[in-house]
Amino acid sequence: MFQTPTPDPPTPLPATATLVLPTPVAPTPLPDIPGISPLQVRNSEYQLGFLNQIRTVQLTDSQYQEGAPAGTDYISVSVTDFIARGDLNADGEDEAVAIVAENYGGSGTFVFAAVYEYQNDEAVFLTSIFLDDRPLINHLAVEDGEIFIDAVVHDRDDPMCCPTLATTRRYLLNGVNLILTNYSTETPAGEPRAITIQAPVEGAQVSGIIRLLGNITIAPFENNLVYRVYDLGGVELSAGPVTVEAVDLGAPGTFEKAIDLGNIITNTTVRIQIEDRNAADGSLFAMDSVILQIR
Q1: Does 4 score more than 60 pLDDT?
Q2: Dist CA 31 CA 24 (whole Å)
Q3: Residue 18 pLDDT > 70, yes or no?
Q4: How far apart are CA 181 and CA 203, in angstroms?
Q5: How far is CA 175 from the centre of its chain?
Q6: d(Cα 73, Cα 39) in Å, to the nearest integer?
Q7: How many C-beta atoms surround the C-beta of residue 149 within 10 A?
Q8: Which of 114, 146, 232, 259 has a CA positioned 20 to 30 A from the CA of residue 170?
Q9: pLDDT in tens, 26-36
Q10: C-alpha dihedral, 57 to 168 to 179 to 60, nearest 10°
Q11: What's residue 152's pLDDT?
């Protein structure tokens, strides 16, 4: 006799899962970095660099403007987005460096690197140095206590609209002066022109005759460089030629030069600079320097 099969009991539906949301985590607040800030720089007093007279203007939100653009009294100042901070004078307190542009109504835009120090919770203008008319700034930093700038500036035949000379440069802050300590360029083919002093090392104590050793990426015209010895006030104490040894014209080379420092007063700080200049117009191709203490 046929029996109707007993159906299996229905499978119970699973209990509805309870969605457990994670406990919200409050965002970690950004640390309040003490010292000088970009905001302070953008709202500071700035000393104009292009005028023949000393004049200070008050920046507001990175800007200052007076007069009409077509007028003879027009002034426009803008702090760019390039601002860096770091200790430039080994006092344990950061300074700030800003790239600032000045315009006086014409097509020229005169660009400066301006240094600020931190005083009473304010950015206080200290000094500035001219870079170029309408350069292309690629990078600004404070590295090893010096200002580093990567910029494309005008070569001697460039139209003012369009700089083509790739450069890097370093500045040392000495009091209220900025001293160029290293400079490099590139050839039109993109090959770097750079000088490196290998000995003596930065800060070494020396006396009498020293041997200056180094290398250059592209041997100079007639294989001759020039050395100059300065005190930190910028007074030239001596100068002379430096012969480069290279296997071929324009090849990498090395140099070794004996320099007599025996006539310099003990405990004087000096800077020795090696430079390669364009024989056509005297412009700087490359330079390196080292600061030494006479003992």
Answers
A1: no
A2: 21
A3: no
A4: 13
A5: 17
A6: 28
A7: 23
A8: 259
A9: 544 545 568 99
A10: 10
A11: 97
pLDDT in tens, 183-213: 999 999 999 999 999 999 999 999 999 999 9
**Could you give the CA distance from residue 113 to residue 142 in angstroms, rounded to a whole number?**
12
pLDDT tens figures, 226-264: 999 999 999 999 999 999 999 999 999 999 999 999 999
CA–chain centroid gap for 205, Å, is: 27
284-294/205-206 β-pairing:
parallel
Other beta carbons within 10 angstroms of residue 52's beta carbon come to 5
- Return the pLDDT at 70: 81
Reported in sequence order, the residue ranges of the chain that DSSP labels E, i.e. its strands, are 45-47, 56-58, 63-66, 75-86, 95-103, 110-119, 122-133, 136-143, 146-153, 165-174, 177-186, 192-193, 195-199, 205-206, 209-216, 224-231, 236-246, 253-260, 269-277, 284-294
Structure tokens at 25: 């985590």
Residue 33 carries which side chain, given as an amino acid letter?
A: I
Mean pLDDT of 283-289: 97
**Residues forming a β-bridge with 149:** 140, 169
Task: List the beta bridge partners of residue 275.
Answer: 226, 287
- Identify residue 234 by its one-letter amino acid code: G
Give the pair of three-digit tokens for residue 84. Answer: 């860096």
Can you give the pTM of this predicted structure?
0.87
**Contact (Cβ atoms closer than 8 angstroms) between residue 137 and residue 149:** yes
Closest CA to 129 of 173, 89, 162, 93: 173
Q: What is the DSSP string of 62-93?
A: TEEEES-TTSTT-EEEEEEEEEEEE-SSSSSS
What is d(CA 89, CA 195) in angstroms, rounded to the nearest whole number? 25
